[in-house]
Structure formats: structure tokens, C-alpha cells
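Annex B. Sample input.
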Amino acid sequence: MNNQAEKTTDIVLNDGIYLHVMNTDKFKTNNLVVSILTDLTREDVTKNALIPLVLRRGSVHYPSMKEISVKLENMYGASFDAATDKIGDQTLMQFIMDTISDEYTLEQSNVFADAVSLISDIILNPIIENGAFKEEFVSQEKETLREIISSKINDKAEYANDRAVEEMFKNEPYGLYKYGCEEDLDGITPSELYEQYKKIIKKSTFHIYVSGNLTSEEAEELFKKYYSGINREYDSNGKVSVSHEKKSLSEVIDRQDVMQGKLVLGYMLETEDVKKEFYKMAVYNAILGGTASSKLFNNVREKKSLAYTIRSQYVKHIGALFISAGIENENFDIAKECILKEVDDMLNGNISDVEVNDAKVNLATRFKSYNDSQSALIGWSVGQRLLGITEEISKTIEEINKVTKEDIIDVAKRLRLELSYFLTK
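Annex B, continued. Sample output.
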């Protein structure tokens, strides 16, 4: 059996359209993800979030969600979904399809070819009426997106994290909410949305990932049929970047009817190249608050009982570190003080060899687990590739194991606190 699920063959289908084939017989399924990256701007963010919702409603050959569903059922119960996210200063649109591998079908049916045809039709052949998207689809999906945006306040922890990012990256692309702004929805017309869609198809970066028991030659032949003939005006290097101005510390307090306070501290890493800091910061974050054996978890939550939940997260594409904690509202000062002490301990080198080793073992276990899931492995690969790292997971673990205590102290000294955010009653 070929267990090298992470081995990837890279193919250029068109200018700025890349196919990445992960050949493996480890799974009985094929996983297909079309990722499209376009600039994250205040003007376009809401339209970009709306486009995948409209596209999934129907295409030229499958003009309704019902007909798409029937086709998926006829493909041995294949699944399809569309999603929106943000990476650095770009919006990430993803179209995802899972199918059974052809070898497990009756009479070796060509399900994968059907999957490529269907997902490509949804993305590249939307229903057009009078030179615009179908008005019914646009109108209904505006309301869907309105509900998504308005419901973000329901999850207080996620809301606090979004607000922290918004404040820390105010007036910068990364500060925009990935689903856009509710006040923009009413003004978006089917014609305007279609023009934005055409611009995306012509100018954006495509990364198409395939994982399954098929050769790169087979995949290339199928995808070229749909993507090699697109008329492109591509002028990007295909890598994610982020623009951020150095800021002094900002302290923000939001008040709502909440039982539990949400504290978020935001740091920026002073660096010219976030790619070269990835390995150091991965270990730093694991020691500080990225695992259940971290300093923040053990000392702030377990020993001092100052947090219901606490963790740190390193956003590798922008070089930002966020510490998030759910605390009693009246414990704000003491909880924040204890968190800052743990950060200072890292800076001052109060890191044991056991903590370093535990962090590396934890990271290696996590990274290896990606090979057990096609979707997880593709998600990991997309993120790493957009950072500029194309190596396999085994090589990534090797690099992680080379990180020294001095490397960790080095990045600790270059982390700058820019934001203290508190959501309280």
C-alpha cells in the first residue's frame, strides 16, 4: 500500500491555475478541493462571500440545487460544499467534493471524472440571465449571508476573537470580517456581482487539490479540459502577503449582556519574512498556550483557576499571536497580569527542556495525524503552500525538531503587544 499520502505532484494548468495531486491508496475516497484566492478589500469582501453561495445554487447543466443533489446521489452519494475564509490579505473561496474511489464502484464507474465535471460546471458555468446572475439566487443568498453575518454575535468567544482582529488590523484588509458587511448587501445587484465573479475567474489564483488513488496524468487530463482554456489576465505571484502598520498598545472594552468575560491579547512578531519564523513560532505557541500541557493551561487555568478556557494561537500567514481566555468579569486585572507573566517567562528564557520536548512531540503527533484525513491534509497543504512552504509533513517535523531554546527566546523577544481586548458585562 502507498502510505505516502502527503506526496504531491504539482501541475500548471493555466496562468495562475495550479493542480496538486496527492496520489494515495490509503483511502477508499477521492477528495477534491478548488481553492480560489482573490484580494481582500472593503469594496469587494461582501461580494466575494456571496459568490460561492450563488454558484452552489445551480449551473448551466445542473440548474438547481435539487438537480445537483440528484447528480451527487447518482455518484454513490458524493458530497459537495462551498466555503469562504480569509488568509492574509486575501479572500479564500473553496469548493469541496468527496466521492467514493472508482475502484470501489460497480463496474469501475468513472465517478471521479463526473466529480471534476460537476464541480467545474458549478464554478465555471453559472446560470446567467440578461448578462447577470439569476436574480432569484442572488436575492435569496443575500438573506442567507445576512443571517450568517448577524449570527456571529451568538458565539461570544468567536465574536471576541473577530472583534480583536478587527481592532488590531483596523483599516487594513485582514481586519475585515470574512463574510463581509451586512450594510453592503442591499446595494449588491446581480449584474455587479456577476462582474466581480468574471474578474475573479480571470485574475485570481487557483489551487486545485486532489487526493485519491489516481495518477497525476489522469487528473491533469481531466482538469485541463475545463481550466486550460480560460482566458486569463493573471498578474500575481500566488503567495499570500499581509500589510500591517506597527501600532502602539490599544486597549478596547466592549460591553454586552455576558455572564463570562472574554479576554484577547494580540501580539505581532517583528519580522521581514513570516515563512522563516514558522518553525520557531510553532514550538513557541505550543509551549505558551497551544496544547493541554502549555504554560497558560497549567498555570493560569489549572493552578490559579483564573480561566475557564485559555489558549494561544499563532496566525502564521500574518505573524500574529492571539491569547484568548474566558474569565470571570471581575478577574480581568489579575488574569491579564498572570497571562503577561507567562509571556515574560518565555522572553526571559524560563523554559524547561521538558516543555520544549513535549511541544515538539505534540506538534509531530498533530502533523502526522493529517495523513489520516484527506480533508485535513489538503487543508494543511493549502495553508503551507500559501506561506511558501511546499515540503512534506515528514520534512516539516524534521525542521520542528531542529528548533532550539535559543530560537524560542529569539521570537519571544520580537513579539510586540498591540492589543488588549475585553468583552464584559
